[in-house]
Design a protein that fits this description.
CATH class: Alpha Beta
Structural class: alpha/beta
Largest sheet: 6 strands, parallel
CATH architecture: 3-Layer(aba) Sandwich
CATH superfamily: P-loop containing nucleotide triphosphate hydrolases
Strand content: 15-25%
Number of strands: 10
Order of helices and strands: EHEEHHEHHEEEHEHHEHEH
Radius of gyration: 17 Å
CATH topology: Rossmann fold
Number of helices: 10
Length: 220
């Protein structure tokens, strides 16, 4: 596969750390001198992820450029779109991403949900990866079951893209037996030099604790 201007961040599920990783990757590439932006082309249930990606790239794009398709219901994007009597087609999404790529060296694209979660009319993140000829990065929580989950995503990718893939294991706040051993176990099935670990971010943990504290106050 030829070198691509797109890096596609997908995951083993929803809420596994894709946005945190995609934002961190975008900031790092910019610090290294690359001209990079990040896209969350389609989302539902809120635009917080898109705002984080926009901020990571220095607000170089408008929110609507980062996230041109967004829907209110917290459902899979295709179902949320149907509720609003709207339709998202793969060709339109690809055209938008390629338009952004003409302005930048690299475009980090974050999917929604897992690899095979429906995004629009008849397509998912796998279809989008292929259409963009993107290099996939698979984000997975580093916990019990991670090896199976990552291998399933790799099996679902076309062989050419699986060979280009990278895996990021997002570590828990406190290491346990599975999180200490998953990388070594996964390396029996996938090249060790393409497996990375992302440390637990204290900022995310602080935000989680604040959210729980607010929830407790509301229930008192």
């Amino acid at each position: 596969m030829k070198s691509s201007r797109f890096i596609f961040v997908t995951g083993t599920d929803t809420d596994v750390g894709k946005t945190v990783f995609a934002a961190d990757l975008t900031r790092t590439l910019i610090q290294l001198g690359a001209r990079v932006v990040a896209l969350k082309p389609i989302c539902s249930g809120g635009r917080d992820d898109a705002r984080k990606l926009r901020s990571a790239a220095g607000n170089a794009l408008s929110l609507d450029d980062v996230n041109p398709w967004h829907f209110r219901a917290a459902l899979s994007p295709d179902l949320a779109a149907r509720r609003e009597k709207k339709c998202v087609r793969l060709a339109a999404l690809v055209a938008h991403a390629e338009k952004m790529a003409r302005r930048y060296e690299l475009v980090v694209v974050e999917g929604a949900g897992g690899l095979l979660s429906p995004l629009g009319e008849g397509f998912d993140s796998r279809d989008l990866i292929v259409a963009l000829r993107a290099r996939p990065i698979i984000v997975c929580p580093n916990r019990l079951g991670a090896v199976n989950q990552v291998r399933l995503v790799l099996e679902a990718l076309p062989v050419t893209y699986a060979k280009q893939a990278r895996v990021v294991l997002v570590n828990p706040p406190h290491a346990d037996a599975p999180s200490r051993s998953n990388r070594l176990l996964l390396a029996k099935f996938f090249p060790a030099d393409r497996i990375f670990e992302m440390p637990w971010l204290k900022q995310k943990r602080t935000l989680d604790l604040k959210a729980r504290s607010k929830s407790r106050r509301r229930t008192k």
